[in-house]
Amino acid sequence: MLESFDAVLLARIQFAFTVSFHFLFPAFTIGLASYLAVLNALWLWTKEHRYLDLFRYWVKIFALAFAMGVVSGIVMSYQFGTNWSVFSDKAGPVIGAPMAYEVLSAFFLEAGFLGVMLFGRDRVGPTLHMIACAAVAGGTCLSAFWILSVNSWMHTPAGFSIDPETGQFLPEDFWQVIFNPSFPYRLMHTVTAAYLTTAFIVGGVGAWHLLRQRHRGDEITPATRTMFSMAMWMAVCVAPVQIYLGDLHGLNTLEHQPAKVMAMEGHYESHEDGAPLYLFGIPNDAEQRLDYAVGIPKLSSLILKHDLNAPLAGLDTIPDEDQPPVFIVFWAFRVMVAIGFAMLGLGAWSLWARWRGRLYDWPALHRAAVVMGPSGLIAVLAGWITTEVGRQPFTVYGHLRTIDSAAPLAAPAVAASLIAFIVIYFAVFGAGTFYIMRLMSRAPSSQEPRLKDATGGPTRAAGITPAPQHARQHPEHVQPGE
Fold this sequence. Notes:
The chain has about 475 residues and is mainly alpha-helical. It is about 70% helix and about 5% strand.
């Protein structure tokens, strides 16, 4: 039965599945690492215990999410050498160096200071511990820098030549490779999305505990209030910035990948005197039209060209074999945009509640924040799907097709590994996610335990385990063989 499937399609599904699982964790931990650094700095500056309680509460969740992100990311690199070995051979001379830099600089920075951040507060002093927190936060952003540079190069390749004999991409100017035309926009848009993702998860958790504590008649702890307040400030400040950055990124995409924008807008036909903004429709690739279309006349031209009557080309100008799958791109883009404006709305609502003095006692606002808790994760997945599916049918846009990038593997072999990934991922990462939810279900206390108190300290993998404290003080009590 598996022989009837297309090996390339199965390989694409496998990579999409693993990268989707993986991307959820960095989208959360990039923002959470910076949030922890801010909490630690506020604790050192003000000595208000609520900041230390929040740091100890969220650092446990960060440690688990960071570990799952690392493990899920390792699998993706193996797929470059298995399912996509032809792509690795052809593009490796260009993308190999930036990916190595990500490991040597960003990941080593994160991993090197992670233990100090998690367990070193009472061992290294406040200054070095603060440096470790900042290093981990900076390392997550630096990791995003290198990975997004590679990904952006695949969308807007620059600074390379192609060997006529081997077909390999050869670097000519690494500055152009790294800072390719779409990279600055993609970096700002993605990192800002990560911060918003963290803000809404933190805000959702805070709102959940505000509702529970009010329902039970318990006293609302300062840490819970602070957690919700900081998250809503982040939503107020960052959501409008993200919408603006998204607009800039869209204009850059229109310049360099017009077919992707045509698919996002559902423009099968060219419009000479202003294109409509379609709010709803069912893309019909076979007939090259948008069925049941509901749109606002000329608004798409105003958004993309800043002119109501500006002409916009449609997919009728793109050969059929070069068109991306419109249905997926069209609807993923609308999910992302809808969530973005919902985030803006919730931020404005929280600002109104704060002005009225009801930020902590408006149940409808808190229920909305709980519902919006996972919205950032959904939005980043929708945005990623829009970006990556919109690049099809190319892996290196305009130069290397996806069908020519796959390894010559049989469909049953790819399908077997895909099934194994699905089973293992849902078992392992499902259990990890369940445990994270369990941690979030408990409200931060006024005397939040340290991570090493909650876990018994870091596990020693080698060396001699020190004797118990009482044995070192009274060696005469130690019996032979102990």
